[in-house]
Inverse folding.
């Protein structure tokens, strides 16, 4: 910090170098093949360059008059990506939001306003006799969805949890009965939320069946594709999202599997008119009474943000310069390497693979002989060991992994986001985990 208080301190190259150096040496190193713990992208350098320009031109993208290129780029990217969703051109809509959490909240608002048109104005669910507003989600849904229920005033108690099958996907057959029971309890489920790539294990819910189920009951199907929607751009992986064209809305984080700087989320609506229903307000200083060809591109009325980063620019620039194959190849490689990592795990007698990976997330446990019991005390011990291993690996710093509780017991979790991560890196990680695990078991503690 400068000690200068009276005048503007001179530019100091060394200080700047110190700041940048500290920035690079701390936090998650997304460009390191060892950073396998979170869904943060190793950004494609060209995207970083455009992001730098974005910061300097500082155009807020909610309004065409202030950010013409970003608004047009949003239209272009919406059409390009809709080619993989499959909605008829002309009727669908897309807005960018600052993150998947905000996209989920915005979609739920639109769904709630459709089912309860007086809620926005009157602040309550509607005429006497209508059920209490509720949403239905899979057990593994991202926390932003239950948080959105809180923000919307629906209340945690009105979140209907749909059971999962052995692959941790929502099970449509059992969901039907749960929804019927919720209705009997006086709930009106206005939205079913499916996950296209759960955060915990990367499971893809059966969208086709869940869309039919939701629509039979007059509910909206929102797909939280924050993590996995990007698989749509790969011909090989697109079938994971079979039925996506039946969804009413889709949240798609480009800052995860499209390798651009955060935040960059695209919120799609099958019917643009329904999306327009998320917010209702007048503000004469920004919203035009009579939109023309250009102000019709404004998205300020459809998103929370007033000032919004033109987050589409990095994505559009990558798409424009390198084309779809850049994304498809990277995503396919990440999923392929995760599959190979799973095979490596299966060869290790002291590790337990918890699922066959559907995408690029893999959960497992270090479980040496002596820890194979299934009683409550064994599970507690197993849980403690995974947590201690995760903390040790994080502290040692060569690898960065995360942990997630699966059926109440901690598991180690890797998310392959960097195409330079290979199965050899994964083997090195397992060696490090094994040695940490043995040491912790010997010394009885997580910390050396
Ligand atoms: C499935 C899922 N939904 C939503 C989110 C939240 O997205 P964001 O971090 O962009 O707010 C995440 C983040 O990890 C996620 O995995």
């Amino acid at each position: 910090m400068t000690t200068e208080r009276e005048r503007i301190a001179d530019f100091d190259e060394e200080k700047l170098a110190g700041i940048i150096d500290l920035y690079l040496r701390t936090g998650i190193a997304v460009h390191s093949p060892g950073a396998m713990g979170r869904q943060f992208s190793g950004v494609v350098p060209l995207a970083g360059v455009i992001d730098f320009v974005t910061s300097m031109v500082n155009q807020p993208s909610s309004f065409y008059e202030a950010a013409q290129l970003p608004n047009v780029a949003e239209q272009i990217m919406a059409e390009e990506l809709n080619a993989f969703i499959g909605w008829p051109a002309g009727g669908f809509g897309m807005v960018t939001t600052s993150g998947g959490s905000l996209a989920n909240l915005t979609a739920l608002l639109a769904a709630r306003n459709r089912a309860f048109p007086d809620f926005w104005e009157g602040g309550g669910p509607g005429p006497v006799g209508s059920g209490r507003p509720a949403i239905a989600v899979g057990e593994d849904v991202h926390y932003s969805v239950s948080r959105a229920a809180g923000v919307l005033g629906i209340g945690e108690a009105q979140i209907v949890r749909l059971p999962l099958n052995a692959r941790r996907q929502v099970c449509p057959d059992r969901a039907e009965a749960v929804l019927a029971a919720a209705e009997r309890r006086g709930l009106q489920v206005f939205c079913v939320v499916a996950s296209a790539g759960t955060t915990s294990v990367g499971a893809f819910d059966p969208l086709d069946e869940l869309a039919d189920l939701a629509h039979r009951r007059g509910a909206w199907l929102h797909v939280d594709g924050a993590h996995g929607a990007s698989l749509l751009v790969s011909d090989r992986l697109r079938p994971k999202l079979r039925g996506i064209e039946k969804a009413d809305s889709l949240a798609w984080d480009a800052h995860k599997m499209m390798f651009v700087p955060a935040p960059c989320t695209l919120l799609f609506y099958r019917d643009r008119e329904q999306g327009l229903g998320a917010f209702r307000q007048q503000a004469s200083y920004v919203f035009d009474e009579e939109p023309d060809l250009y102000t019709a591109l404004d998205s300020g009325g459809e998103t929370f943000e007033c000032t919004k980063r033109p987050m589409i620019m990095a994505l559009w620039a990558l798409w424009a310069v390198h084309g779809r194959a850049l994304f498809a190849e990277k995503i396919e490689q990440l999923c392929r390497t995760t599959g190979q990592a799973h095979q490596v795990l299966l060869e290790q007698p002291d590790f337990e693979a918890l699922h066959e990976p559907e995408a690029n997330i893999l959960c497992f446990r270090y479980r040496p002989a002596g820890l194979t019991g299934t009683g409550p005390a064994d599970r507690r011990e197993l849980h403690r060991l995974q947590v201690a291993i995760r903390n040790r690996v994080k502290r040692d710093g060569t690898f960065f992994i995360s942990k997630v509780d699966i059926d109440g017991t901690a598991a180690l979790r890797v998310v392959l986001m960097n195409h330079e991560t290979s199965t050899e890196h994964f083997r090195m990680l397992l060696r490090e985990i094994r040695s940490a695990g043995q040491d912790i078991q010997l010394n009885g503690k997580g910390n050396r």
About this structure: Residues 325-443 form a domain with the Aspartate Aminotransferase, domain 1 fold (CATH 3.90.1150.170). The CA atoms of residues 77 and 178 lie 38 Å apart.
